[in-house]
Amino acid sequence: MKWTLAARAEKMNPSAIREILKVTERPNVISLAGGLPSPKTFPVSAFAQACADVLANDGQAALQYAASEGYAPLRRAVADMLPWDVNPDQVLITTGSQQGLDLIAKVLLDPGSKVLVETPTYLGALQAFSPMEPQAVSVASDGEGVLPDDLTAKAEGGRFVYLLPNFQNPTGRTMSEARRAAVSAAAQAAGLPIVEDNPYGDLWFDEAPPLPLTARNPEGCIYLGSFSKILAPGLRLGFLVAPKAIYPKLLQAKQAVDLHTPIFTQRMVSAVMKDGFLDRHVPTIRALYKQQRDAMVAALQREFGVDGQPLDAERPLGGQRGHAVPSVGARRPGLDVEFNVPKGGMFLWLRMPEGIDSTALLAQAVERNVAFVPGAPFYAGEPDTRTLRLSFVTATVEQIDTAIAALAATVREALAHRTAAQITQQLAAA
Amino acid sequence: MKWTLAARAEKMNPSAIREILKVTERPNVISLAGGLPSPKTFPVSAFAQACADVLANDGQAALQYAASEGYAPLRRAVADMLPWDVNPDQVLITTGSQQGLDLIAKVLLDPGSKVLVETPTYLGALQAFSPMEPQAVSVASDGEGVLPDDLTAKAEGGRFVYLLPNFQNPTGRTMSEARRAAVSAAAQAAGLPIVEDNPYGDLWFDEAPPLPLTARNPEGCIYLGSFSKILAPGLRLGFLVAPKAIYPKLLQAKQAVDLHTPIFTQRMVSAVMKDGFLDRHVPTIRALYKQQRDAMVAALQREFGVDGQPLDAERPLGGQRGHAVPSVGARRPGLDVEFNVPKGGMFLWLRMPEGIDSTALLAQAVERNVAFVPGAPFYAGEPDTRTLRLSFVTATVEQIDTAIAALAATVREALAHRTAAQITQQLAAA
């Protein structure tokens, strides 16, 4: 049988990382790789009550086909919880915010269209855009996100710039108030729409991040949000807010894709959110993740012998200047390792010493029962192959301590091998 | 702000029918338009028990991110319930079978690719394929589906043929055993893959339909199934079965679209299906829908004064020869109306008298508080504007009687106006 693939499908390849990460499902491996929220934070009993209530009160409607736009009370709740004036008519409920990226790509990207992204950027966005065959252009970025001047320089002909301003995946960095103002102004001056992705914004540790970019210019932005990190990812419930100029097209694309997001899960979440549940629940997630972030930073300081690093626009690490996190225990000798101290979210970004390729390192780390995600796939342009992403939310504090020690041992071993190899080479050349 | 749309999005237009059908949400309108399963058939209490069990036993896992392929026990259950030898590894759980159509389009259709469809075909498939900008080619069809000779004539260069062999949407027609054998042979001879959509196959009234086309040639077919019609559509749960040659690409497309289908609803359905629940439940749906089909056929006979029609390949109505459904009550004078008597599913297809355009008729029908879907949008090629689709599953028997009487009155009035207009014209011309 002759299956002729579409050109876009010919380019799809099984993710090398995905294959490596399958190994991490071995029972003894502590994974700092996946972006899995801590299951401890899932409000299981509240969901049980919500399911029972929804089925008892509205069982038939909760199981019937429903509107493509989403469940009206949930759209109102989304509009109400956002920190700018949002009309519920502009809210589209999506099957996870990942689906929002797919819809946006369908509506805004032709083959060869230029789409601007951060350096590095969320891998899932690159994957969602890719079937529409755009040209992804990496905008120079530092620890606060994209640099406005480079955005201006590259904006010409761009369909949109994709930004994740809060506790970015993968770097954990956050765009400052001043940077937001500058980026918003640069985008408006260039007539460049912004797609703002904000799955982590509620997971701040000490203070809420600045207002979203969309709040500054709602007509020029599409905003993506998610219930995955504040309630549970397994429901696949997200939303987008789009201006009137573009909403009807996104709605039509949504209808063609899955008719509507499951109405049962929409009603579940709507029921759970009643009576200010999130106001009580989200602070418990923040407290847990902050504790785990602190544990990871302390372990990194101890095991790698270095503090969280200041930023460097020329050689952007992508984090904030080190917090006053107490160093715990005796430090090992310092290595040429950099890492940031994220102010929220789920991820921390490291740069390994000169000569270490983090993709090669992963196989060795898995031998020591620790896993991470190499940084290279997050770059639309030339990757920094020394970088890697750690999640501090899935593993416990004890697991984090064990895993970071194992990671440091892996790096020290790799460096020792490298030195030995260099000596051998030098001897051979002598 | 300059929003530049993708070419595919420029072509998306709000569905005229969707706009008209919004009117049908008025309280007094009896809608025979939407394809909404009867909510009476939703096993609300079984779902309530399943939710409670899933959250009590596996709450955290049921709310966490999950595999893109789908929940393993559900994939096994799907493989087990299909009437040919299916490896669970070839099953991909989708967010409704509509999503399967989107994934297939992404993986198999380039702009301009030829995709073959029935005459008429499922509108939602045309909508799902459309963003990939294929050329949809209508294959001549009669009351048993596509004609093998025309399929052969048009197969050259086609990426696949999309077929809905059981109780088709919109016509209600079913492909006979002989036609399946001929179509399968024609597709294989031409090296043309088949995408087989089977959302209604379990809803047979007197006897199960013949084996799926996929069972005859699994390597040459992608099969789409759904839980929407046998359990509940509001969960948006469907699946596809694809050969090894194409499965990995569909999986990658799935991952980019929404990471995975909600694991909570997958586990709900898996829990509900335990212990042979469907074997007890589905017969109750069949019995209800058969009773409602009978009521609609009887009402059509009475109000339009005609029987269900035999088929005519030259002028394909798309139904089976009239069943022995008892005529109820005195018949009104016969009109030049044709309709089929479907052997299962949810829909019945009518052809109005000469001179009636069913799209124009809809506005008049809504004035009499009855709604249907005009047939024209279901045609990829030249539409038969006299056709329309009626659903017999959402309305009760009493509502069906009232609605068909109102529909017949609308048609008689339209014909009378037409005759009056013709006489006026003739007088004016005289």
What would you say this structure looks like, in words?
Two copies of one chain form a homodimer. Chain A is an alpha/beta fold and about 425 residues long. Chain A has helices at about 5-10, 15-25, 45-65, 70-80, 95-110, 125-130, 150-155, 175-190, 215, 245-260, 265-275, 275-305, 360-365, 395-430, and strands at about 30, 90-95, 115, 135-140, 140, 145, 160-165, 195, 220-225, 240, 340, 345-350, 370, 375, 385-390. Chain A is built from 14 helices and 15 strands. In chain A, the strands form four sheets. Chain A has a seven-stranded mixed β-sheet, sandwiched between helices. A four-stranded antiparallel β-sheet of chain A has the order 11-12-15-14, with helices on one face. Chains A and B meet through helix 1, helix 3, helix 5, helix 6 and helix 10 of A and helix 1, helix 3, helix 5, helix 6 and helix 10 of B.
Helix-strand layout with pairing:
The structure is a homodimer of 430-residue chains.
Chain A (H helix, E strand, L loop, with lengths): L6 H5 L4 H8 L6 E2 L12 H20 L8 H10 L9 E4 L2 H12 L5 E4 L5 H7 L5 E4 L2 E2 L2 E2 L1 H7 L3 E6 L13 H14 L3 E4 L15 H4 L4 E6 L11 E4 L5 H12 L4 H11 L3 H28 L33 E2 L7 E5 L6 H10 L2 E2 L1 E2 L12 E5 L5 H33 L1
Parallel strand pairs in A: 1-13, 3-4, 3-7, 7-8, 8-9
Antiparallel strand pairs in A: 2-10, 5-6, 9-10, 11-12, 12-15, 14-15
Helix pairs in contact in A: 3-11, 5-6, 5-10, 7-8, 12-14
